[in-house]
Amino acid sequence: xxxxxxxxxxxxxxxxxxxxxxxxxxxxxxxxxxxxxxxxxxxxxxxxxxxxxxxxxxxxxxxxxxxxxxxxxxxxxxxxxxxxxxxxxxxxxxxxxxxxxxxxxxxxxxxxxxxxxxxxxxxxxxxxxxxxxxxxxxxxxxxxxxxxxxxxxxxxxxxxxxxxxxxxxxxxxxxxxxxxxxxxxxxxxxxxxxxxxxxxxxxxxxxxxxxxxxxxxxxxxxxxxxxxxxxxxxxxxxxxxxxxxxxxxxxxxxxxxxxxxxxxxxxxxxxxxxxxxxxxxxxxxxxxxxxxxxxxxxxxxxxxxxxxxxxxxxxxxxxxxxxxxxxxxxxxxxxxxxxxxxxxxxxxxxxxxxxxxxxxxxxxxxxxxxxxxxxxxxxxxxxxxxxxxxxxxxxxxxxxxxxxxxxxxxxxxxxxxxxxxxxxxxxxxxxxxxxxxxxxxxxxxxxxxxxxxxxxxxxxxxxxxxxxxxxxxxxxxxxxxxxxxxxxxxxxxxxxxxxxxxxxxxxxxxxxxxxxxxxxxxxxxxxxxxxxxxxxxxxxxxxxxxxxxxxxxxxxxxxxxxxxxxxxxxxxxxxxxxxxxxxxxxxxxxxxxxxxxxxxxxxxxxxxxxxxxxxxxx
Length: 618
Ligand code: ADP
Ligand code: ZN
Fold this sequence. Notes:
The protein is of the alpha/beta class. It folds into 4 domains: 16-209, Rossmann fold; 217-413, Rossmann fold (3-Layer(aba) Sandwich); 416-519, Arc Repressor Mutant, subunit A (Orthogonal Bundle), CATH 1.10.10; 536-617, HRDC domain (DNA polymerase, domain 1), CATH 1.10.150. The protein has 29 helices and 17 strands. It has a 7-stranded parallel beta sheet with strand order 3-4-2-5-6-1-7, sandwiched between helices. It has a 6-stranded parallel beta sheet with strand order 8-13-12-9-11-10, with helices on both faces. Strands 14-17 form a two-stranded antiparallel ribbon. β12, α14 (323-330) and β13 form a beta-alpha-beta unit. α25 crosses α29 (598-617). The radius of gyration is 28 Å and the shape is globular.
């Protein structure tokens, strides 16, 4: 054996992962940190990947699955997610399949036969299927390239998507010690991260933590004035005509009413909540995925399985319970990286309802305190006078150096006012009336209204009666909401909305602390500004470009229908937009379009070139 060092062979070929990225997926270069993650798994090591929605998590395990011998097992919590992913992989010419309850026994057997024959590069399944002894025994018999645990935050009891089945996934480390594992999530907080590492036994894994900034999302938060529904309608009509979007409400009834009302206004909206028949829920979800331009009005039950890349807006008609929930829900907008809006309207009643729900919950004290702290943080985000994006990232311990320049507070900096004196009046009014009345009553006392109840209780003779006439009833209501939001006032749990003072209000009452609060701007001003998301089609001013765009979309829909997959599984909007811009006339030129790998080129190249030629001839 020679002891001379051997020079590594000089190769002009791209590294193997890059070749697959180009050939199979049709993309030119990796996004950070895809290359490092792929290298880690290819070397047989474990990885933990935290990346925001739309960041490109899937390739982090799909490419190693193709690089390493054996089959990759992908654990995914939802059937619709698996189906979309597998459909997209099959479109790219990859040998992928799923095992779940939608398969007939014969189909499931065929998948297992392919597994044993070494014919599958990726096999998707739900955790409960994977953990069945029969499945594990089969996996013992075949070579495995890796385990990918998608939506890994489902192991965390702290989050809102907890799945008890995920806990048992820790056994993979012991049972398959030689097989590398990768856990992926878009949930950012450190506590969830710790739980994932602990519960999936990933202490030795390399962690890849990306920024959670979503620069293409514009955050717009405002307090409801008048009817939130009307504001929503105006927002959709002005900024999102014909766009796909999700509207979140807190209750099923509100979901039903809002969907019906939007339909009555001429929009296409479908309800989605846990109280609907499973078949109707599935049908609505399928339509949302398969069609363009539908709106789904939903409770938070809707969303985790939604991989639709071109959701152009997410609207909240209620306050989410936490910043995590807000980030996750708004994060469903703009996965394709194109501009999208996250719009929210919230009011006094939201704050009171959530406070009551939490105070009255059966959970133990620790849990309650945690819920409480999370709601505080959400309210803090609503009431902040800073850039929304900076405040949001702050919550995830990330620093955005400059204000984003396009959230509502950046665009329309809120005026603040010294609310100390008004707050003192409000607080002492609560005190003098015995800390048991709700907002409306207190406002009436402050304004000095003639009222039978006020007289009966003798509150027309207390010092705070009529001392608040410099503000309007609406301004007082806003102030009470803000004081509840900042924790100077507590809400009783009995459901009547009685307000009481908290410890924190003392320095304000004693004049030791001043209060600067947001002044509510008129809602009209906000929606009058343009924030229409420039989806590619909007940029097509040339009629010929527009015609080609429409022709390509029609072709995509035909191809998708023929194969019973959603249109975005065939091509993303970004691929179509690139074809319109570059008008490829040859296969070589077509190969340069992002998202067109070898398999799609072979299957659709002809039809695409014909469509482009026909549009040019017209
Ligand atoms: P996530 O699972 O993190 O939400 P996906 O894996 O679905 O994100 O990827 C989001 C989008 O980005 C997809 O359309 C995907 O094809 C695209 N994408 C991923 N990696 C790249 C890349 N290196 N270059 C270009 N596009 C990419
Ligand atoms: Zn901003």
